[in-house]
Amino acid sequence: MRRGAILLALLIGGCAKPPGAGVGGGIVSTNPCADSVLVRILPPAKMAAISHYSQDPSATSIPIAVARRFRGIAGTAEEVIALHPDLVIASTYTPPATQAAYARAGLKTLLIGIPDSIAESQAQVTQIAEAAGAPMGGARINAEIDRAVSRRSRKDGASPSALLYISGDLATGGSTLLNDMMTRVGFRNAAASYGLTHTGTLSAETIVTQPPAVVIASERKSRGTALRHRLLPNTPQAVFPRVLVNCGGPTIPPALERLAAIRAGL
Predict the structure, then answer these.
(1) Which residues, other chains included, contact 193 with Cβ-Cβ below 8 Å and sequence gap of 6+?
(2) What is the pLDDT of residues 99-135, one digit of tens each?
(3) Residue 123 in 3-state DSSP?
(4) What angle do helix axes 135-152 and 32-41 make, rounded to 10 degrees?
(5) Measuring CA to CA, which residue among 1, 58, 11 is closest to residue 32?
(6) Confidence class for position 24, pLDDT limits 50, 70, 90
């Protein structure tokens, strides 16, 4: 009798699920720009984790109070796989070894890049929303972007030159989402005037002899900002919050609004 009980216990134990089995599901995002879309179109219960960058004030595109409601992860293969998500949304810059680990674990993965225009950003919103099973949410975000573009686009009058500094002496060049938004509201990106064809370093000393009509920076206090104020005392300098710099998608409407306000203030 005792032997039969032991055998029954072993059989039951052999049929039991291993630790962690049945746990998981939802979406893991290791991309802060995907986070900014997902938290607006999905119920929190469907988000298994977001990027730790979204919980960093200098890198986030969503309110910190919102970001801290979710589990934040660094994005290592081990921690993502341990969550057993239904979908992983990551950057195209994710290391090949990490991508291979996701594949070996059988995880469905969507890799997204950096959009260079408003249209590309809207296409990416659609891609994320469809992968997440919330296409209507993506359509809603894109409709808001369309309305903002319609309201803020300016084609009449002069196009004053502007430089937009992302951080320190790093200025945005052409063929970028920020450049697209700048030109939509009536600015001419002055970066090319100083030989900057792509986003790159542009010191205050470089522009002092031929300053733009306005300098726009994402920081109120930094060495670069202080130097530009000192060397360009007669050049208007405006703040463009860092939270509007990092990503497109839902950030585009407030970014256009802020840029249009700066343009109107000249």
Answers:
(1) 161, 210, 212
(2) 999 999 999 999 999 999 999 999 999 999 999 999 9
(3) helix
(4) 110
(5) 58
(6) confident
